[in-house]
From TrEMBL:
It comes from the Eukaryota. PANTHER family: MITOCHONDRIAL 2-OXODICARBOXYLATE CARRIER. This is Mitochondrial 2-oxodicarboxylate carrier. Its main location: mitochondrion. InterPro entries: MCP_dom_sf, MCP_transmembrane, Mito_2-oxodicarb_carrier. Belongs to the mitochondrial carrier (TC 2.A.29) family. It is found in: Mitochondrion inner membrane. Transmembrane segments: none annotated. Pfam families: Mito_carr. Keywords: Membrane, Mitochondrion, Mitochondrion inner membrane, Repeat, Transmembrane, Transmembrane helix, Transport.
């Protein structure tokens, strides 16, 4: 193997390891808010008998009803965490690695550097969506389960049930793929484009603490703005992948059809259900991911 090939392999391995670490840290810290977000997104308004009155009511109800001991009450907020843990390492590795590769390819074009960053983010998001969608189907189906943590099916049991019932296709383990593509594509286009463009606009601080806070603030804004823009796709994804209103009947079929049904029956604001817990998760979570990636990648470059 030539020295150039060794250098490229080393760089790729650093990007993959740093991206995987970023995803694992983010999911372990922020998963409870993802459970709450999904619960809000799959409820169909005040007529839903399981409707939560508020964010506080959702937290309290999950804690009280889905665990019989304190630790199990906490575990209720970690329903469906195994699929994202299994997915986060390869998913974020794919996300950051492909972003770097798309960015490198686009650097040879005549595109403005700022626009190239956004397009690279879009490409990374679409690639990530294809990898993660089966895990999302299993995760959402587990998060929608309101039984106590000890009584819910296992992750692998739920996956086997989905496959045996509907297979691997767009009605089974890849249900909601178009909405997942929209969610991840739009999010990452803004997420990477905003973060790196804004970060390059402001000079870095010499003080490590101030520099950390600068990056965290930009990452927080990046995650928050991205979440506000892409949430209609997220709501559509949760409705398609979650339980249908009438057993045996498929009401939510495709991404834009689902958005149209929600808008017609529940109003425009229903497309923004779960926005608060989503921002609470992906605002700081988005900052955490970028910082873990940057600092881990920098450490690996210097020490390995």
């Amino acid at each position: 193997m030539s020295a150039k090939q060794q250098c490229l392999l080393r760089e790729a391995s650093h990007q993959i390891l740093a991206g995987g670490s970023a995803g694992l840290v983010e999911i372990c810290l922020m998963h409870p808010l993802d459970v709450v977000k999904t619960r809000f997104q799959i409820q169909r308004g005040t007529s839903d008998p399981n409707s939560y009155k508020s964010l506080r009511d959702c937290f309290r109800t999950i804690f009280r009803n889905e665990g019989y001991l304190f630790v199990n009450g906490i575990l209720g907020f970690y329903k469906g965490i195994l699929p994202p843990i299994l997915a986060e390492t390869p998913k974020r590795a794919v996300k950051f690695f492909t972003f770097e590769q798309y960015k490198k390819i686009l650097s040879f074009t005549s595109l403005h550097p700022g626009l190239a960053l956004s397009i690279a983010g879009l490409g990374a998001g679409l690639t990530e969506a294809v990898v993660v969608n089966p895990f999302e189907v299993v995760k959402v189906s587990l998060q929608a389960n309101r039984n106590a943590f000890a009584e819910q099916p296992s992750t692998f049991g739920q996956a086997r049930h989905i496959i045996s019932t509907n297979g691997f296709g767009l009605q089974g383990l890849n249900k909601g793929l178009t909405s997942t593509l929209g969610r991840h594509g739009v999010f990452n286009m803004i997420y990477f484009g905003f973060y790196f463009n804004v970060k390059n606009m402001f000079p870095a601080f010499q003080d490590p603490t101030l520099e950390f806070l600068r990056k965290f603030g930009i990452g927080l804004a990046s995650g928050t703005i991205s979440s506000c823009v892409n949430i209609p796709f997220d709501v559509a994804k949760s409705r398609i992948q979650g339980p249908q209103p009438v057993p045996g009947e498929i009401k939510y079929r495709t991404c834009f059809q689902t958005m149209a049904v929600i808008y017609r029956e529940e109003g425009y604001l229903a497309l923004y259900k779960g926005l608060v817990p989503k921002i609470m998760r992906l605002g700081p979570g988005g900052a955490v991911m970028l910082l873990v990636y940057e600092y881990t990648y920098g450490w690996l470059q210097n020490n390995w």
